[in-house]
Amino acid sequence: MSAAPQSHPFDSDETPLVLVRREGAITHLTLNRPRAINALNSDMFARLAAAVSAAQHDGSQAILLDGAGDRGFCGGGDVKELSQGSARTILANEYRLDYAISTSATPVVGIMDGITMGGGIGLTGHAAIRVVTERSRLAMPEARIGIVPDVGGHLLLAAAPERLGEMLAVSAGDMAAGDAIALGFADVFVPAERLPQLQAALAAGADPQAAVDGVAEPASASAILDARDWWSPIAASVFGAQEPPASEDPTGAALRLIRALEASDDADAGRLAAVVRAMSPTSVAVTLAQLDRTRRRALALADVLADDLRTLGRLAALPDFAEGVRAQVIDKDRNPRWSPARIEDLDDAVLARILDPEAHADEQPLDLEVRRPRSADAGRG
C-alpha cells in the first residue's frame, strides 16, 4: 500500500478499471485509473485475479501488465478505501493476487514505467520479468502513512545489498531504474520508446525473455549504491551481531539507528536522520523488525505475505494510520501527529502485539495455495 491520489467520478462500470484483452499470443492487462496514478482498489484486485487465472488455461504464452496514462504504472493502493473499509479483507485479496502473479505458470511481464509504489510493486516486483524505464520511480513509502511496506516488499528489501533495504524502508526512499535493478526490484531496463516494440514481439509469440532482451539496454549506474560509503558502517554498528536482533528488540534497533545517524559527521546521514524523524516511529521500529525476521528466517514470499496480513491488519487499526492518511491524502498538510511522536517514546508492549507471529482470535490466516516458485525466480521466494 502507499498513498496515491484516490477516487474520481470517472471510476464506473462504463470505464473499466482494468482493461483485459487478448492480443495474439498474450493476455494484456492495463490498470486504468490514470488520473489516480492507477491506484488499486478491491474491484481492480478482483478483475486482475480473474484475468490472471483465466490466462493459465486459455493458451496465453505471457501476461503483459502495464498502466494507463503518462504518470506511472501504479501509485499504490487506494488508502481511503483501506482506511474506511474492512482492511484485512482488502489486504488478503491483494496479497492473494500478488502471490498468483508470482507463481503464474504463464510468465508475467511487469512494466514499471513511471511511478510504481506500494501495491504497484506488489503486482510487478514478484513477476517473472520486471521491466523498468528511464521514467521509473519506485518506492515503498508506507512509513509516511503509519504502516509498513507490505505486498511482499520486505522480501525484496531484505535481499538488497548491505542493508540498503533498511535505509529505504525507514525513509520511504525512492529508486530510479538503475537503483531498482541493483537492489533486486527489477530485472531489465527498456527505453520507454521501445515498449510498443516489446508488446508487438510478445503478441507475435516471441519467447518472453527473448523479447525483452531484444529491446533492453544497460541501465544507468545506481546512485543508491554510492550511499554504502557512509551507510554501511552505520548499518554494521546498528544491526551487527554484537547487538540484539531487531526482531527481538525493535525499539532498541530503532533507537540505535536514529542515534547513529544523528551522531554521524556525514551530511547524508544527517539528512536521513531528519527524514526518519518525520516517519511514524511505530512504522520505523516495525519495519526494522520485519526485515530482520524475513532475512533471519529466510522466509519465502508466502510466509512474508502472511506476516504482512497480520502486521498491516494490526497497524491499520491504530491511530497512526488514520493520521497518516489525513496528513498525506485528505488534508495534505504533510504534518502528521504521530502517537507516540518520538522513537524514544515507543512502547515495547505495543510493538510486541503488532509483531506477534501468532494469529489473534479475531484474525483469519492468509489462505494461499502454496506452489513451487518458477525456476527463473526461485531465489525471490
What distinguishing features does this structure have?
four-stranded mixed β-sheet; ClpP/crotonase-like_dom_sf; HIBYL-CoA-H; single chain; alpha/beta; about 375 residues; about 45% helix; 3-hydroxyisobutyryl-CoA hydrolase; six-stranded mixed β-sheet; hydrolase; 16 helices; ECH_dom
Q: N-to-C terminal Cα separation, in Å? A: 20 Å
What gross morphology would you assign? globular
What portion of the residues fall into strands of 2 or more residues?
Answer: 5-15%
- Fraction in helix: 40-55%
Unreliable segments of 5+ consecutive residues: 5-12
Radius of gyration: 20 Å
Count of helical segments? Answer: 16
How many β-strand stretches? 10
> If strands are numbered along the chain, what order do they take across the biggest sheet?
1-2-3-5-7-10
Q: For the report, how would you describe the main beta sheet?
A: 6 strands, mixed
Oligomer: single chain
Write down the secondary-structure element order.
Answer: EEHEEHHEEHEEHHEHEHHHHHHHHH
Helical/strand content category: alpha/beta
Architecture overview:
With 381 residues, the chain is of the alpha/beta class. The chain is 44% helix and 10% strand. The protein is built from 16 helices and ten strands. The strands form two sheets. The protein has a six-stranded mixed β-sheet with strand order 1-2-3-5-7-10, with helices on both faces. Strand 2, helix 1 (42-54) and strand 3 (62-67) form a beta-alpha-beta unit. Helix 3 runs antiparallel to helix 14 and helix 6 (164-171) runs antiparallel to helix 13 (281-296). 54% of the residues are buried.
